[in-house]
Amino acid sequence: MFHFKWKKIGVVAGLSLALVAAGCGQQEEDSGGDDQSDSSANISEEVEHTITGIEPGAGIAQATDNALDEYENLAGWEHEKSSTAAMLTALGDAIDKEEPIVVTGWSPHYMFAKWDLKYLEDPNGVYGDVENIITIARKGLKDDMPEAYTILDNIHWEPEDMESVMLDAQEMEFEEAAQKWVDDNQDMVDEWTKGVEPVDGESIELVLTPWDTERSSANVAKIVLEQQGYDVTLTPVDPSVVFEAIAAGDADASLAPWMPATHGAFYEKHEGEFEDLGENLTGAKIGLVVPSYMDIDSIEDLEPAE
User: Fold this and answer.
1) Which residue in 33, 68, 103, 153 could disulfide with 52, CB within 3.0 to 4.6 Å?
2) Strands 258-259 and 131-138: what pairing?
């Protein structure tokens, strides 16, 4: 059994985001370009040239650190890493007050169903294009547990499916939300398990990253495997440890890796040491996210800190 000791990540204190009063007496003949420049400068100052991030070990955290290097206009900006919960709290507080905020975001995620948000355009392609979530397995799983291997290889669902589990999980435990989804989508589950023979209590361990997307897929997979007679353990770990555990054979499989950008470096480091079963979800995305009421559309619209 693979074991991982969590290190508690300190939650960063909430950002102080005070709205700057609009200037008076602007003349009608002021150019739209100047207005946009003033607006971008004000937004950058109001968020204190800070991007509100999540856990330091997340792939999006690494991409955001890269963005600070790649975009000259982000000179002097801070990437404040904390936790997913702290980021969502700060985002919700800012939206309640209609204040500006820039966060690291990803989809599928219930935040896009709960709030009116938008991605900032990424002209330099730091965050990559559309992402896919893949399934990886340890070498030898196909021989040792052919039935489990077949199910894991067959699992494929849509972002809307995952988001429905995440939304329900705001009101109940993730395992309950996953069970609800399985009950409501038994036809899809039957396709995943078609031709698979039941087993008698074989143990299998899935590793996952500690975010709602992966909690959703891991709990759904757990229930489906348990329906076939498996004894399933879910172990949440840091993204780098997902690949280390599978490559070393200390865990059996994972539905957590985001490719090609988010976890690409971990994939390359251990390539050839695990088996890639392909996509379990397509159409994922990461990037910088802002509330739609903010008058800004691109990372390049942000202003450098003085």
Assistant:
1) 103
2) antiparallel
Topology of 32-128+287-301 in CATH? D-Maltodextrin-Binding Protein; domain 2 (3.40.190)
Please provide residue 256's backbone torsions phi and psi, each rounded to the nearest 5 degrees. -100, -25
Q: Please state the pTM of the whole predicted model.
A: 0.69
- pLDDT of 84 strictly over 80: yes
**pLDDT one-digit tens code per residue, 110-138:** 898 789 999 999 999 999 888 899 999 99
Q: Rounded distance, CA 61 to CA 80, Å? A: 10
Tell me the pLDDT tens digit for each residue of 158-182: 988 998 999 899 999 999 999 999 9
DSSP letters of 75-138? TT-EEE---HHHHHHHHHHHHHTT----EEEEES-THHHHS-EEEPB-TT-TT-SSEEEEEEEE
Helix axis angle for 212-227 and 146-154, nearest 10°, is: 130
| In the chain, domain spans | 32-128+287-301, 131-286
Find the DSSP H helices in the chain.
32-46, 59-70, 84-96, 111-114, 141-144, 146-154, 159-168, 174-184, 186-192, 212-227, 239-248, 264-270
CATH architecture of 131-286: Roll (3.10)
Which one, of 100, 119, 122, lies nearest residue 293 by Cα? 100
Residue 67 has, within 13 A of its CA and on its CB side, a CA count of 32
Contact 208, 256 (CB under 8 A): yes
